Amino acid sequence: MTSAQQPTATAKPGKPTDDPSPHGEPWSPRLWGTLLVLCAALFLDSLDVSMVGVALPSIGTDLKLSTSTLQWVVSGYVLGYGGLLLLGGRAADLLGRRRVFLVALAVFAAASLLGGLVDSGALLIGARFLKGVAAAFTAPAGLSIITTTFAEGPARNRALSIYTTCGASGFSLGLVLSGLLTSAGWRWTFLMPVPVAVLALVVAIRLLPRQAGPERGSGGYDVAGAITGTGALLLLVFTVTEAQSAGWAGLRTVGSLLVVAALATAFLRIEQRTAHPLVRLGIFRNGGVTRANIAALALFGSYAGFQFVATLYLQRLLGWSALEMALAFLPAGTLVALSSTRMGALVDRYGTSRLLPLGVLSLTAGYALFLRLDAHSGYLGLVLPSMLLLGTGFALAFPSVNIAATNGVPDEEQGLASGLVNTAFQVGSALVLAGTTAVITAGSGGGQSPQAQLDGYRPALLLIAGVSLVALLVTAVGAVIDRRTTADPLGAPDDISAVTADKVLAAR
To answer: Is 60 exceeded by the pLDDT of residue 24?
Structure first.
């Protein structure tokens, strides 16, 4: 969420950077190529999160999968992605960001090919889990390559804005592409990313900057922290995704949550005592980073929940085809994609602390507007206005939250910061989606009549809007803190200050 930190205008003293144009000169073709390769990988990661949803009915029919088994085609990816992101971020810091990115991208391409060729539900779920694991390593490695290649300030803001809007575009356009590809056959939703991933891998090998490897004598591998932390995240995501079928108050769910709590407690104690922790807990003393992660959890969680409700409403209640439903989301994805080249300049001018609350407010308004749904809602009266608000909100909030989550973090911990914010996205998605599903089931009472479905959708939308309000509150608090603490200690006016909150406090 909002950073209490405004983006800095210049690189930190002594900060190494491969960016040849920190003062606004045109970027070289090699630098553009590096950025585009990283954008392609994030686009594929995000695409995979949303693209499989429309194809699920066809997959279930073709492979003869039950509803409970079919859910794991989605949950398997989320489990691998959300559960291993922290480990992926730390691996990038310890083993080398370029190396981790290249290996993970190759695994992603292979898993995509496997998913498109299998004839077994178990193998398909396994391929999806493997893709999630690969994405858990490419996402933090790619983000940390950007934050260590581009100097903090306008250059990094521009690069991160383009990068993150590519991710948001992939998530938004995944439904559209899935609708088109599913019409030709569900396997194409798995095979389409393969040539793109292979091409990105070939180009990445040539263009990604080679950075000095970590000094092996000065680092550590915190095996106990990796086991307890990753175990807690994997079990949490698994428990939440299974809670609907096992029962939220069931023995298995409660027992699993107790084990999660025990693992999390052990993880925190280990991180406090070890010399080289997987997660240095001191990173959360940076208020902007902490608020950014809270907002990321609520931001992505609310949107994932909304997309689920809207998909059910448009296809089940209104009877729209998969392609019609996918095209209904197109305006939101288009707004996000078109904004990519402008967001860097907006962040430079206004700062993340102003843009984030504005973006979350637009998202919340879009969710609230959709509460007017009924059994005969039209596209122009309900869907289009909501999509325009959601597209605007995501375009403003998604790049800003990524910038806020990595600002003021030293280079050696950029992988950690990137892993944290991506973990927040995925865990938020799993938690809110599970809650949304539970509310729909309870509200509808299992009925399939139009009124029963509406009785489930409306309270679910209220839950989603409430989660978004949490993000709005956190971002608003951050904006107030930022306004009070980011006065330039050298006397520069607030509106042109480019000093982060932490630097101001340190200067004082």
So the answer is: no
Backbone angles phi, psi at 39, to 5 degrees: -65, -40
**Residues 22/404/420/126 CA torsion (nearest 10 deg):** -80
Residue with tokens 């084990």: 259
Single out the residue of 173, 150, 78 nearest to residue 411, CA to CA: 150
The residue among 412, 402, 460 whose CA lies nearest residue 432 is 460
To the nearest whole number, what is the mean pLDDT of the chain? 81
Contacts of 363 (CB under 8 A, 6+ apart): 299, 302, 303, 389, 390, 393, 394, 397, 468, 471
Query: Domain count of the chain?
Result: 2
Q: CA–CA separation, 272 vs 17, rounded Å? A: 31
Is the C-alpha dihedral spanning 324, 328, 333, 339 positive or negative? positive
What is d(CA 82, CA 366) in angstroms, rounded to the nearest whole number? 26
Amino acid at position 345, single letter: A
Distance CA 458, CA 464 (A): 10
As a whole number of angstroms, the distance between CA 357 and CA 350 comes to 12
* Judgement on whether residues 327 and 202 belong to the same structural domain of the protein: yes
Neighbours of 104 (CB within 10 A): 25
Residue 250 gets which letter from DSSP? S
Does some domain include residue 78?
A: yes
Q: Is 286 helix (H, G, I), strand (E, B) or coil?
A: coil
pLDDT tens digits along 12-23: 433 444 444 444
Residue with tokens 């298995």: 252
pLDDT of residue 215: 47
Measure CA 342 to chain center: 20
353/100 Cα distance (integer angstroms):
32
Contact between 428 and 293 under an 8 Å Cβ cutoff? The reply is: no
What does the CA dihedral 465, 466, 470, 475 come to, rounded to 10 degrees?
Answer: 30
State whether the Cα torsion 203-204-208-210 is positive or negative: negative
**Do 102 and 171 belong together in one domain?**
yes
Q: Give the largest Cα separation in the chain, rounded.
A: 69
Residue 6 included in any domain: no
The CATH number of the domain holding residue 461 is 1.20.1250.20
> 350 and 284, same structural domain?
yes
Domain identity same for 302 and 382: yes
Q: Would the pLDDT of 112 be above 90? A: yes
Q: How far is it, in rounded angstroms, from Cα 332 to Cα 211?
A: 37
The token pair at 313 is 């409403």
